[in-house]
Amino acid sequence: MWDAEVLLAHYLERHVVLKPSDRVLELGAGTALAAILCRKRSCRVVVQETRFAISHTAECLKMNLCEDVGLIAANWAEQEEFVPVLQEFFGRGESDFVLMADVFYHPEDFPTLLSLVNRSLIRGGSLVLCFEQRRRRLNELMEELSHSFGSGQVVKYEIPSDQSYKESIENHDIDDKTCLYLLHLTNKL
Ligand SMILES: C[S@@+](CC[C@H](N)C(=O)[O-])C[C@H]1O[C@@H](n2cnc3c(N)ncnc32)[C@H](O)[C@@H]1O
User: Fold this and answer.
1) Domain boundaries, the chain
2) Rounded mean pLDDT of 101-125?
């Protein structure tokens, strides 16, 4: 499990009021800690992982008594694979929350990932993402995010140490830093 997943779950637990009616989709879930937290809050939850990794995710859900979470075994380009699972678990093809932790690895994947987010999130829904900078160039991604989620903000977030996460999405100057960022954005499209 990556630090970003822990921070994402921690943030959701401490700072987000999750309602049982909320529909939560976690992309690139891995061990799915954030999804498990949401299910424990009685949300309706679906997770996505690759076909290669989905059995590990399913095992983590099972160990945490969350076997009633929906599973999507697909990559982000296979967006039609999401539709039947989201409809089965959410009653529609969209969610109130999309969660992502540490999924920004390959820049060529970013447009596909963003189109999936836009497609999967209701207007006014929340995208909560956490990532480690790792010296990647994320400026284009940040610009795309601010286009779709201009009404959102980067939430100041402090873990129990002297680190804080208070950069604004307007500040595209984070490339050379190595630290965790948590963004809680509202879909305006
Ligand atoms: C670094 S892991 C993060 C896992 C978990 N969210 C965490 O932070 O512990 C990135 C995850 O994204 C998934 N992933 C990467 N590229 C993907 C793609 N193109 N389509 C679907 N999933 C992908 C991987 O299978 C992997 O589990």
Assistant:
1) 3-186
2) 88
